[in-house]
Each structure stands twice: as structure tokens, then as C-alpha cells.
Amino acid sequence: MRIAILAHVRQRIAQPFAGGMEAHCWALAAGLQDRGHDVVLFASGDSDPRFVIDPVIAEHYERTFPWAEHRGSAPLIAHLDSGYDAACDRIAAGGFDVVHNNSLHRFPLEPRRTGRVPTVTSLHVPPYDALRWFVAASPAARHRLTVTSARQLAAWWPEGAPPQASVLHNGIAVERWPYRPGGNGEAVWCGRITPNKGPHLAARAARAAGVRLTLFGAIEDPDYWRAEVAPLLGPEIAYGGHLDGAALAEALGGASLFVFTPCWDEPFGLVAAEAMACGLPVAAFDMGAAREVIGDAGAFAPAGDVAALARAIEAARAIPPSVPRARVQRLFTQELWLDRCERLYAEVAAGDAMLAA
Length: 357
Fold this sequence. Notes:
Elements: E1 2-6, H1 20-34, E2 38-44, E3 52-57, H2 61-64, H3 67-70, H4 74-92, E4 98-101, H5 111-114, E5 119-123, H6 129-136, E6 143-147, H7 150-156, E7 165-167, E8 187-190, H8 199-209, E9 213-216, H9 222-229, E10 237-239, H10 245-253, E11 257-260, H11 270-277, E12 282-285, H12 290-294, E13 298-301, H13 306-316, H14 322-331, H15 334-350, H16 352-356
């Protein structure tokens, strides 16, 4: 198939990944390309040159319009609207069989656009007002919508999801995440360094549990880093930097435990699945889709409760490494994910006839 992948353009679709959305989009493009599809990635122009890139904007907008300063600003909105309007027109004229929309922008949801090119839209965030009503009005025979967890399906459609909406769990290439039972006895945390990811709470809980912890990830909020995270660094708590995929996999593979601290309605938690693939049990806040993803591979604490998370760290250390690894192999592999994507593409390309069946 000839497939357009329409990305979010806040960050580059390239390693080291800023977060799960960028990792997801990169893996989708790479996986479909490896399966023989003709893939064009509509993303920021500074994304990974291994792909055929059709730029939505010349460079990721965090560089031009830093989110902390321009969130919701008229210049940023106009910049994105212009880029996505033109990109959607090029997709419509490009002879694509399907577009997989990961953009979180309203234009690709419009019926006048999904009516021209069959569209699968993947929603990677909880509902928010700027997009909620466009999503609600968008289901159609030639438009399918996916969310990453049952939790998010209920959040987007509390009165019941339409037949065009479904859960599409994320998947990872398990072979890229080394399985080394045992590890070094230490814990790791990774993700965007921002308050809603809670690394400062992970650090406090690890210290209370007497477990050394290394934090990995991009420092997205420097003020938060300086005020809440950096003062906790020392012999027990380290910062390992922002690593590319291979280096991060090596770091996770050498550890014994993963700490997962969402402080928002986490839609999935790709970093937890990656750690589980390495055989790391998880101590997690019971927030968002954490329990749905981690299941029997972890121990849980109420969101924000550092003392309870310290106890969960102790409990998770008793879980055999084979349990998290097996859960990922059963539920969250890249092959399962891509198989489901291909079925969705076939369904949406078939339109009314497939939906009626």
C-alpha cells in the first residue's frame, strides 16, 4: 500500500526520541516500510532522513515556538494551521491508499478530507477541548479512530464508543530490548523530565526504599528540573542523560527494576512496556492505563503517594523477570501492532461495505 503517516510536529521524528509519540511514529514508519509498504512521513523537515519526508513545517516547532512560551498562542496556531492545511492537500493529491493520522490537529479529522483519502486517526492523549468536538464529529465509513488503551476509549467516549473507534495497543520490537534476568540490583526511570511524569517522586520513593535510581530523558521543563529534580541528585539518585534507542535499551537491560510515575491520565506508557521487555518488573502509580499495561508484571501505589510507591518498589523486586518479558511478548509486540494497523487500513479502504459486515 501507499501510506501517508501524518505526525505531530512539536518534536522531530528522530532519535533520541523526545517522548512516546515520537517513538511510536518512528516505529510505525520503519515497521511499515520494512513490510514493503510505500511510506511517506509527513513530519517536521528535520526528522529522520532514513524516511521519505514531506515536511509539514521546515523544522519542529519547539525550536521556533517553545511550548512553554507559545502554548495556545495565535502565531503558533497560525503556523501549524498553515502547515497542516497544505500537507492535507498534498496527501489528497498524492495517490495514497490510506493516511495514518498521528497529528493531534483538527484539519485531518474534517469529513471533507477523510472523504477524499481513507484515514486512520490514532489519539495518543486524553480528550481536551481543542480537539474533542472534532473527534466526536469525525467517525465515518472512511475514517477509523484508535486509542492506546481501554481507559482512553472510555475517556474519549464516556457514553459508548462508535463502531469506528477501537483500542490499538502500542507495540515494540522486543528483540531491541535485551533480556538479562537479574540485573545490577538498581532501578531506572525514563521519560520526559516534566512534572506530569513525576521523576522527582520516583527519586524520593527510591531513596525511601534504599534502591539506587538512574533517571533518563530529555529535560523538557528546565525550571522544574532545577527546582524539584536536580536537588535530589547524589550517590543514590543519578541522571543518565537523554539516550538514543540502543543506549537506552542497554541501560534498561542492565537494571533490575523500573519505576513508572505518571501524574496525569497516562494513555499507555510505552516506556513501561520497553522496560518490561528487558525483564524489569515495575513499581508504578496506579494512574491512567498503567494497570492495563503492566498487569501482573508490577506493584502499584496511589498516584502521588511516595511512601506507598516505596513499598511498591519492594514488592515489585520479588516479581520474576520472566513475568514482565512474557507479558510484552503476549500483548505488546511490534508484529501484533503492525498486523492490527494493516487490518485497519484494509477496513477503512473498504469503507461502508466492511463496516456493515
